[in-house]
Amino acid sequence: MFIELWQPIITTLLFGIAVVAIWQTRTIQKREYKHRRLNEIVEWVTKIISWHSETKEIFKEMANKEDVRPSQRLYHAHILEVQAFLATIMGLYTYIGRLSLTFKQGLPEDLLKLMNDLKSFTDFHGAWARRLFADIDRGTVNIDTREDEKQADELALQMEKSASIVLEKIADIKGKEIG
Fold first, then answer.
1. pLDDT higher at 39 or 125
2. CA 37 – CA 23 distance, rounded (Å)
3. Any domain includes 100
4. What is the DSSP string of 64-114?
5. Residue 150 sits in which domain range?
6. What whole-number distance in Å separates Cα of residue 138 and Cα of residue 141?
7. Largest Cα span, the chain
8. What whole-number distance in Å separates Cα of residue 166 and Cα of residue 12?
9. Residue 89 within a domain
């Protein structure tokens, strides 16, 4: 008799506990999903930031060598590698852009600005590489690249600012939405 009276209460209580556990698990899964997506965006932005300093050094080295011809293939290979890296980054942008739509606070717009800054940066470096190789083919040594370096630095600074804005937004999102 005692069990018969308490059975509906115990059943309801167990059902309630199960519902709360399922809801809590689902909430944690959503939070972890968002966290993983934000980390993917951070990784993408970090790749962009680290890439540009290496590229600038290669261009400066190419311009300041007395005889670049023995190393020309190496430099050309590096530039092709840079172009392949950029194609990968551009391809990932489509995916990253879709991920960013999950989040509010202007993240998609900031990512688009970063992508445009990256495109300007890479377009400039492509033109710079063509000029350097043309000078090298003409036999020019110790090519003056101060103006190119200045412009590359300005474009890199703009790209870094855009990247910082994206990373700050991600930090805000992690703080507010994910907790």
1. 39
2. 21
3. yes
4. H-S--GGGHHHHHHHHHHHHHHHHHHHHHHHHHHHHHTTS-TTHHHHHHHH
5. 6-178
6. 9
7. 103
8. 48
9. yes
Quote the CA–CA distance of 59 and 122 in Å, as a whole number: 13
The three-class DSSP label of residue 107 is: helix
Residue type, 174: K
- The tens digit of pLDDT for each residue in 48-92 reads 777 766 666 666 666 565 555 556 666 666 677 777 777 777 778
Question: What's the pTM value of the predicted model, to 2 decimals?
Answer: 0.69
Question: Residue 89 is encoded by which pair of tokens?
Answer: 């980054």
The reply to whether 1 falls in a domain is no
pLDDT digits (tens, 9 = 90+) for 23-35: 998 888 888 888 8
From CA 167, how far away is CA 171, in angstroms rounded?
A: 6
| CB burial readout 66-99, b (16+ within 10 A) else e | eebeeebeebeebbeebeebbeebeebbeebeeb
Question: Structure tokens of 116?
Answer: 């445009």
How many residues are listed for the chain in this entry? 179
Q: What is the pLDDT of residue 161?
A: 92
Split into its structural domains, the chain has a count of 1
Q: Can you give the pLDDT at residue 61?
A: 65
Q: Which amino acid is at 17?
A: I
Structure tokens at 137: 């083919």
User: What single-letter amino acid sits at 161?
Assistant: K
- Read off the tokens for 25: 């698990």
